[in-house]
Design a protein that fits this description.
The protein has four helices and seven strands, in the order αββαββββαβα. With 186 residues, it is an alpha/beta fold. Helix content is 23%, strand content 20%. The protein has a single domain, classed as Beta Polymerase, domain 2 (2-Layer Sandwich). It has a five-stranded mixed sheet with strand order 1-2-5-4-3. It has a two-stranded parallel sheet with strand order 6-7.
């Protein structure tokens, strides 16, 4: 099924949405469709319907093209139709100050990937129940995958000294542990 075929099937289900097929290196295998942000939820619900059956959420990521580009970000979703063994890629173009609707009401598995995109790109997902940092520490400033993020940022790494034990201490610890695991409990 091509992007044009999917758009034709979506048009009656989501009236008023202006979809656009996009070209990509693998668009012959995975159709790519540009979706307006305000129609993302309705589009995903329609894609789950009969005939299309894109019922599995695969992932979401983002691309920061350049701070001067308008809109700056592409939020990229991958959905799968296991019954038809097909994939579709949806792209939503937004600026940094625009919120993207969260797909968690439609695909509950979108929660953690949306948190990752928020953490690394700073894109806010409207309606997400637990939008907070996932990969970076809570006190981290900025979003490291943005093009305007300072590459020369210096932050002291937290390192820990390795545990130094002698060979005899190591063997004694192993024996003690072996004894604890084999001793029956009363």
């Amino acid at each position: 099924m091509t992007a044009a075929d999917i758009i034709a099937a979506l048009a009656p289900a989501v009236p008023g949405a202006a979809y656009e097929p996009l070209a990509s290196a693998d668009s012959d295998v995975t159709p790519v469709i540009l979706v307006p942000a305000e129609h993302l939820i309705a589009t995903c619900q329609a894609l789950q319907g009969p005939g299309l059956e894109y019922v599995a959420f695969s992932d979401v990521t983002a691309v920061d093209f350049h701070p001067a580009r308008d809109p700056r970000f592409d939020v990229v979703y991958h959905l799968v139709s296991p019954h038809r063994r097909a994939r579709v890629r949806l792209k939503v173009r937004v600026n940094a100050d625009v919120e993207v609707p969260s797909l968690t009401p439609v695909f509950p598995g979108a929660g953690w990937p949306e948190r990752e995109v928020y953490d690394l790109f700073g894109i806010v997902f409207d309606g997400h129940q637990d939008l907070r940092r996932l990969m970076m520490p809570d006190d981290w400033e900025g979003h490291p995958l943005r093009k305007d993020y300072p590459v020369q940022l210096r932050k002291d790494a937290q390192t820990y000294m390795p545990l130094q034990v002698t060979e005899e201490e190591f063997r004694a610890n192993v024996e003690r542990d072996r004894h604890v695991r084999t001793t029956p409990k009363p």
